[in-house]
Write the structure tokens for this entry.
Amino acid sequence: MANAATAIWLLMTCLTAAAQKLPTVAVLSTGGTIASKQDAAKGGYVPALSGEDLVSAVPAIKKIAQIQVEQISNISSSDMTAEIWVRLAGRVNELLARPEISGIVVTHGTNTLEETAYFLDLTTISTKPVILVGAQRPASDPDSDGPRNLLNAIRVAVAAEAVGKGVMVAMNGQINAARDVTKTNTSQVETFRGLEFGALGVVDEEKVRFYRAPLRRQTFVVDSRTQLGRIDIVSSYAGADGALIHSLVRDGHVQGLVVAGLGLGGVTSSMFDAIQEARARGIPVVISTRVPTGRIFPLSAGKGSTLSLRQIGCVLADNLSPQKARILLMLALTKSQDTAALQKYFDN
């Protein structure tokens, strides 16, 4: 009996020592499909699992890292807010400042995952990896993609090559930069892609492998006192008369606008008049595009063209999507309202 007890003690000591050598990853859970289960009474999926539940469902994680789990929220990502972003960014920066934390994985719903990823990319101070991960199929489905995605995200978070590459999204075996990535399919698992420049790398059965690094990055310092203004997105389309912009401007609550323009960022003549009213009232306006890829630059000279919009003081969004241009404008307005200064942030 004594020999058996000694053997068990030695085994436990070895296991503990081995665990202590593993890197530590903080998993911050926010809800979403990855944490959802079928609710028979409601007839659909609802967030139901905690971060602890998600991690414990993937035993292989224990072989890769020691995990510290925190629950930030448990919501559909459709309900993600700027207030949660600020709180999440604060916690990410606090954790990454600890020497024992090697990286962070944020579990998140896919609807606004790319927006949260970009916000964190703009507000994370450390060079340690921050990986966002979600699922297209809920946890209660027999073929849920959540467990494999979570395992792979943690593998990326502890990879030496992931350091210094900013916030990334790791799903379906692909690693994408926060600035570039977008959701491309409503339901299929291969949905998050960097359409114009491709993935940063892959995470497969053998290893995590990177092939390029993002260059267009900048950092804003935020804390619990940071107040982000109300920025609305308005789309241009055939026959758009600018009524929505007139309404927003005269309501008096909007502090900035992002316009999803046509092609190179142009708008209808009537929408141009509405944007001109917004500019006359000192409201910053950023011009993006409905087109999935390509950057904004002046070309034609007609009324409503990108050139005419720039001439009245609009900021051009480069190749940022409307939803990401909104995030950058939110943060840039904490530093300046000057058009030239704002344009520099979008050119960075």
User: Anything to note?
Assistant: The mean pLDDT is 94. The longest strand covers residues 66-75. The chain is about 30% helix and 20% strand.
